[in-house]
Fold this sequence. Notes:
74 residues, 4 strands
Amino acid sequence: MADLDDLKEHAKYCRYILYKIDEVANGFRVRVKAGSYGFDGIVKKEDFDAILAWLEQIDAKMVKGSVSDDVFFV
């Protein structure tokens, strides 16, 4: 998970870190965005627990959904 390790280093300097988690057949799809960098990958349960602990430790915010700007106030 070198990409995720690089993102963790970059996240130290970011104000907002966002993440989204989806359960898939072979583990969890984890998407993390810190500044203009991001990670999108499928991880196994044992790696997922460590990633979730890190996200909670740095007070990252979970994205529950998204809406296009065009329809946000419709």
